[in-house]
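Submission checklist for the structure archive. All mandatory fields must be present; incomplete records are returned to the submitter.

[x] Identifier: F-box domain-containing protein
[x] Organism: Wallemia mellicola
[x] Residue count: 354
[x] Sequence attached
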Amino acid sequence: MKATLETLPTELLSKIIVSYGAHELLYVSCRCYDIAAYDLICSGVLFSPKTQKRVEGHSQDHRNVRAYLNFISNMNPGSLYTNSIEEYHLNLNHFHDNIRLHECANLADFISYFPNLKKLVLTLKQLREPERVHTTIGSSISCLDLTINIEYIDDHSTNELATAILQQYPNLNTLRLHRPDLVSSPGLDLDRQKRFISAFNKHIENNPGANLCKPTAILFKNYRGSPSFSRFERYETITNVNYIHIYKWNRKTGYTEATKSKSNALRKYYPETAGNQIGHPRRRRFSNDPLRRLEIEMLSISTQRLAYRDKNIAAELRTLIVQREDENAYYRNFCVETELYKLLDQLGNVPDHD
């Protein structure tokens, strides 16, 4: 007999739902719904649909978001279920034509439905003007631990995000902002990290009597993205190298970076990756030729040929390699070959390349 979700034993379905976090099965059938809902009520944890990595036309992703919004909107505030939720993983990384689905703002509104919420993990992916940040991130007076997974953010949204968190999460104790190892522009690089802290401090200073949160710690850390074969986008903070920054509150100076507390911060806030190496954003210095053999071998065959054949292109590659180190030190992604061919294109000298 062919096994189906309807014929699998309840214990096995429960194992799939609980151990692998496959709460999407909640939408498959009434039986799966009962098993998943029971698990969620008992665990106090709620998950929203993950973002599929390859969805033609985003139609399936959009349907999942609508179905989940319908599920959430039918909840009764003050019910046994809403009162039981203490941890919420809300994925708002749902876009169509680079515009966040309007259902995401509706979902964010329901964060306040959970009066005993202690931990919230928000996956945003990007925040850019003219998106209304205050509407996008929701609010909670009970939340103590807020995590935001984000990669792309502009200067305006960086300031808005700092203000929105201060105002809409007044009892926050821990704030974590997670990003990739390297971000594309405009992204949450080292400059925007400092801009965020500056905006945080400025808003607190300018509103001394306001009911604003003052987290014990504000943490910035890298995450590991999904492997190429994964169906869904996932964000995992267990990384081989930990690029972590921790800011602590000081009455005189506001939030300042605690550069000597990284090991302790990892053990306290990320114990599962605390044994791995701590990375530091620093520019690599070249005592010899930047275009050494190892660097050349990392380039495509056609670019290697150009470098060997044309000394001017080799010189440009040396400059770009040094520039890459400068950009990487600020957690910014920089592709030497892409920039080389952009430069050659501007000069009207684009050779054929693989």
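[x] Structure attached
Curator remark: The chain has 13 helices and twelve strands. Residues 158 and 192 are 7 Å apart (CA to CA).
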